């Protein structure tokens, strides 16, 4: 697997967690009793709002007292309950696996192994965009492993009873292939549909390239087959074997988004409706619009999220950091999912304190199953779950939903773009 790099993302630390599981949350035990820990302070990344925040436990903990009275003993971190509902899908953890698309960076075996382990864990998983146009749907005669049907089958192999679910993403490009229609009518998706564990995710944008459509490199023979559908650019010169294929990001206004969601609800009444937003400056308005129109979940993908092919300037300099998106969205009482550089517990807890219902793992999940194809994701999430329980209990709380901005320093100042009226509960 090609090394995946991102500012503040430690691939080696993820690999260690994929190997060691919960033990990786602690310092090297070989030095226990011989080294004084904590002498070197961590340096915060002040350019990242989440990196610049700290979790701040109070001295007085009334919720701990409530738990003590309920249990008849002093509460422990193991008493933190992590089960939650993510966009209408019941999950064992406030975590889900983010979308893997059709690019080779997400190798076939890695994606299938991640699918199997996500099902085993009972957490939701998103099947990403552009798979049908690039690899087919998975019918007889088509190579099935990299297709939607291959991923769907792998996820259901060990799916935990009553938990988890799949979200099928559709972009502007996928709409022409009628991806949702194919899945909704497919017999292999019926067990998920009948158990209420299928969601359709409308992709408005992604963190890696906000405002841009899908980009990929194609050899000339493949490019010739799609030259009427996409823009093709000779960025490497006429003599190069590969050309750049660019798709449309789609056009959205408030009314178009409302109509899209209403169309999804009317055409696919048995699925949950998810909407994925890129980190745009009006992300608060977009999230509120989606909730008002009936979306079961809104996903915000921070500028740190995604591994899509895009100009370096776009990856480095375009879009808001995830923390800023969460602060702008502010107070709400609806399901908000957050993704972007999630791989360890403190960042996840900060997102939850800023209003996220759950956080998504993309790059980290791929690295984990690359390190250990059989159990890498399971080990990574066991470590994350331990950190979540320890950190949440340290704040004197015992469910992810009880976290709030009071648990953070500096205390976040929610922007005027947030809609305080969402606290009324009408969108729950």
Description:
The protein is of the alpha/beta class and 428 residues long. It has 16 helices and 15 strands. The strands form 4 sheets. The protein has an 8-stranded parallel β-barrel, surrounded by 7 helices. A hairpin with a 2-residue loop joins strand 2 and strand 3. The longest helix has 19 residues. The two termini are 41 Å apart.
Poorly predicted runs are 1-7, 417-428
Class per helix and strand makeup: alpha/beta
Q: Indicate the overall shape.
A: globular
Radius of gyration: 21 Å
Features:
three-stranded antiparallel β-sheet, globular, 14% strand, disordered C terminus, 16 helices, 428 residues, disordered N terminus, alpha/beta
Indicate the topology.
Elements: H1 11-20, E1 54-55, H2 62-71, E2 84-86, E3 89-91, E4 95-100, H3 108-121, E5 125-127, H4 131-135, H5 148-157, E6 166-170, H6 172-177, H7 179-184, H8 190-194, E7 198-203, E8 215-219, H9 220-224, E9 231-233, E10 242-246, H10 254-267, E11 272-277, H11 283-292, E12 297-301, H12 312-317, H13 322-329, E13 336-339, H14 345-353, E14 358-361, H15 363-371, H16 376-394, E15 408-409
Parallel strand pairs: 4-5, 4-14, 5-6, 6-7, 7-11, 11-12, 12-13, 13-14
Antiparallel strand pairs: 1-15, 2-3, 8-10, 9-10
Helix pairs in contact: 1-15, 1-16, 3-5, 3-15, 10-11, 11-13, 14-16, 15-16
